[in-house]
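Its record is retained below.
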Amino acid sequence: MTPPALRGFRDYPPPEAGARSELRRRMRSAARRAGYTELETPSVESFELYQTKSGEGIAAQTWLFHDKGDRPVALVPETTPSLARVYVERAKSEPLPVKWFTVSKIWRYEEPQAGRLREFLQFNLDLLGVPGVEAEADLLATAALLLDDVGAQGLYAFRINDRAVAEGIGRLFGVKETARFFRAVDRYRDIPPAEFEGELGAAGVTADGARELAQLFHSTGGGVPPPELDGFLQRLVERGLDEKARAGVTRLKALFALLEPAGLADRVVFDPTVVRGLAYYTSTVFEAYARTDGGRAIFGGGRYDHLIELFEGPPTPASGLAVGEERLEILLKAAGRWPEGEPPLHTYVVVVAPELTPEAIRLVQELRRAGLSADCDLLARSMSRQLKEAARRRARRALILGLKEAGPESIVERDLESGGQREIPRHAAARSA
C-alpha cells in the first residue's frame, strides 16, 4: 500500500496546481508593477540563523537536522532572515532603497489546521533603506494591489498598530513582562475573555487592570477607522502614555495621513491588539484580515529596523510582509473567486484518420513556436472523441485535418464556443488565430 502524504502536507494535482501557479503569476506581476524585484534564497539554512533572529516561537517550529558534516541546519521556516543575510553580503554595493519580493516554500513543525500547514508557499515583500512610514505606506499599497489582482477586491482590510504604543499601553496597566504581554495580546482574538485576562495577569497586570484593558480592546470593535483615529489616540495619550509610546502615536498619525492619498482610507483601521509574534519587529505592525469569516487574519508584517545589524550589517531601516497561500486560498474559494487553473488551450488539432498524426504533430509545433498553446491527440482516438477532448481542455478552437470538403492546401477551423467553422489556408493556421 502506498503511504499517503505526510500530515500537514498537501498534493496539488491539476487543475489545483495550475490555479496556484496563476495566483503566484498575478502576485509577481503586482509586485513588479510596484517596483519590487525578485530574490531567490535556499530552502535550507544554518539553524543559527533562526536561534536569535526569529524568536523562540519560530525556532521551536523548525525542521531541524544535522547534515553530513554534523552541522545543525533547518528547512527554512521564514524568509526574512535569509533576505537579511543576502542584503548584508551586498550592502556596500546595493543602492537604496531595496525593494525585493520572494516566493518561497516554508516549513514549520506546528499543529496543522485550516489555513496552516507544515509546508506552505509564502510570498514576501520587503523594503529596506526607508526610515519613515513611507515604507509601510508603499508596502500596504502594494499589498492592496496584489490582493485586488488575485480577486480579493472588497474582501479584506488592514489592521495597523505600533509596538511602541502597545508597549506603552502595557506599561500603563502595570505589565512587568513585555514578551509575555505581547503573546497574550497576539492571542486576544483566539481565546475566551477569561483566558485572556488570566494571561494578562501572568504578565503582571492586576485583575482590575486586566478587565479594564480587555474592555479597552473590546471598545475598538473591528478597529478604529481613520476619521476616529486622532480622537482615540488623543484619549490614550491623556491616560498617560510615556514619551516612547507617544512617538509611536506620531508615527501612526503620519502613516494614516499617507494611506488616504494611496487610496486605502476605506480599508485601514487602527487596532491596538495587533502586535505580531516575531521578536524582530520594532515599531509599525499590521495584518490583512478578512471582512467576513470572523475577521480571520490573512497575512501580516511590520518594521524590523535592527535585524540587519544582528547579522553584522550596517544600520538599515526595513519593513516587510509575508502572504501565505493557504489562507488566501480559503478567502478566495469562499467568495467563489479562486482561479480556474491552467489557462484554456488555444488550439486542439484534430485528425480524421490516424495516418494524419505526423502532420498534426508538425502543425502543433508550428503553432507553439508562433506563441500559441496547442496540442493534438496521441491515442489514435476517433474524431468525435478528439473533439470531446478539445472541449475538456477548454480549447478555443479546433483545426481539423483531412476533412473531404477542405481543399488540398486548406484545413477546417471550428470555433468550439459557437460551433461555427470555416476553411482556411494551411499556411495561415497561426496567423488566423
